[in-house]
Amino acid sequence: xxxxxxxxxxxxxxxxxxxxxxxxxxxxxxNGKKYAVHIAQxxxxxxxxxTTYNVPVDDIVAANPGIEKGVKEGYRxxxxxxxxxxxxxxxxxxxxxxxxxxxxxxxxxKKYNSSVDDLLKYNPGIDKGLKVGQVLKVVVxxxxxxxxxxxxxxxxxTAPSVTFTDTVxxxxxxxxxxxxxxxxxxxxxxxxxxxxxxxxxxxxxSGDVLxxxxxxxxxxxxxxxxxxxxxxxxxxDEELIFKSKAKYTIAVLLSFGLNDKSSNMALKNLATxxxxxxxxxxxxxxxxxxxxxxxVIDIPLDSVGIMKVLNTAEMKGMDLIFGPLVPxxxxxxxxxxxxxxxxxxxxxACNSSLLKNNPYIYxxxxxxMTQQEILAKYTIDKFKTAQxxxxxxxxxxxxxLFDAYRKRFIELSKxxxxxxxxxxxxxxxxxxxxxxGESVIVFPSRDKGSxxxxxxxxxxxxxxxxxxxxxxIGTKEWGGFDDVSGYYKTKYxxxxxxxxxxxxxxxxxxxxxxxxxxxxxxxMNKAGAHGFDVVYYFTKTLLMKEDVDSEVINAFGLKAVxxxxxxxxxxxxxxxxxxxxxxxxxxxxx
Length: 590
Fold this sequence. Notes:
Blueprint: E1 3-10, E2 26-30, E3 33-39, H1 46-53, H2 57-63, E4 76-83, E5 92-98, H3 105-111, H4 116-122, E6 135-140, E7 162-165, E8 168-172, H5 179-186, H6 190-196, E9 209-213, E10 248-254, H7 265-286, E11 290-298, H8 303-310, H9 313-316, E12 320-322, H10 327-340, E13 343-346, E14 361-363, H11 368-382, E15 387-392, H12 396-415, E16 422-425, E17 437-442, H13 448-462, E18 468-473, H14 486-491, E19 495-498, H15 507-520, H16 526-544, E20 558-560, E21 567-569, E22 571-578, E23 581-589
Parallel strand pairs: 10-11, 10-12, 12-13, 13-14, 14-21, 15-16, 15-17, 17-18
Antiparallel strand pairs: 1-11, 2-3, 2-5, 3-4, 5-6, 7-8, 8-9, 19-22, 20-21, 22-23
């Protein structure tokens, strides 16, 4: 067995990338030394603090005895940065401010509730005027945020923490909350919240404690509504119990064919591109504290070779396995994982039979049948007043797609006023198209020849009905049919469902693309982005038991397909051609 070993410290956070920007640092000068003041957030680790401030771990421990036993949320730690460059009284808190256009010494001092005298004292020469871009040392008064909490005063946070004292509500800010959302929840204007809490801006963060004034006539327990997740997204792994560990071991099984010169070159390239995404996921998580060893293993394609890799003490000790990319190989590994009670993520399409009675399997790619079911739901939601025509492709390999769409449409139609579905064949579907008005034609076929023939018949019929408004719904394979011209795709607003969408106009995609280009000096493709998404998402949700706000090119929403079975991704994108471009309509869930 030949494998690559990636040994890295992974840290999972709400965002994918960095933690504390230097412009937000606050400094304390003490005994001739300069320290950055770090208020620990949930999930912080000693290693994460070390990488954020680029200060040796030993120096941090020396300045903060006890931190080596664990970083405590809400606690104040001093990070030594070297000797102080000015003589000040020990314990002085300083914030470095970069001068912007139009600012004066008075306006800067007022912004930080400091004095002009202190500003002049610690920034010699500014009495002659400030320069844009100049960095000033501003003495600020210590706040409760910068005061070390007492152990006995540190509350144990469970559900939303609310304490009532007369007409004042003491409230702890939750993740993703803003001053605006809190003002709406408790019906107190933002300005009142700022004044009551002496806030200089509307910026707040998770863990902050706010005092919220309530009218006397409303002195009663105010219900705090929990923020519900998207209705369709299901938690995975709810019925399985896996204890948290201090260190994890993860395997990524990819067929590089390093020992087989005759192996499939396309598969080799796919494995390499996916692996590059895996490395990016490790890099972007590495800066922050979840400890894991990731081993990327060159898995053979034959069953004997696969079992030889699996039946080792090393593999039996894995906490999570990704891959392989080939469905036949995934079947073998998946069944072995079920026997060993090791969780496995299928990064590509897998056989639905693998999920039956195997709760350890997670299918990251939405099946073709599920995509048709989602398209049926989308059609009913979007085109209630249109003439909806379902065309039977008339071949065996597409029959399952036709049946999946038809069955789900009929089920949903009964709940939505019995919306009519016209079933037609390739020889007569054009007779049902409205000569004036909207028609939706569903042709669930993956066969290129059948699709081209269908489009030609449609276009010939539409030539006789210039007022017809037609939308065509197909399958994701149509995206690779170059014989279907851009004119036809736009004219008939050709639409399909896909489990992934590489959209370079989105911020998350652009961020990952920049990292990819910097690391590999090449443009990122779909396989690389998918490798990043899969490893980041499932490592975080399965091992850290934390939510991931969004993915780069995927939409993950998993649920158990049968009682006691594995989990399948039940969400995908609806994509539509418009003005010669493929646009994302949205994310839809079955």
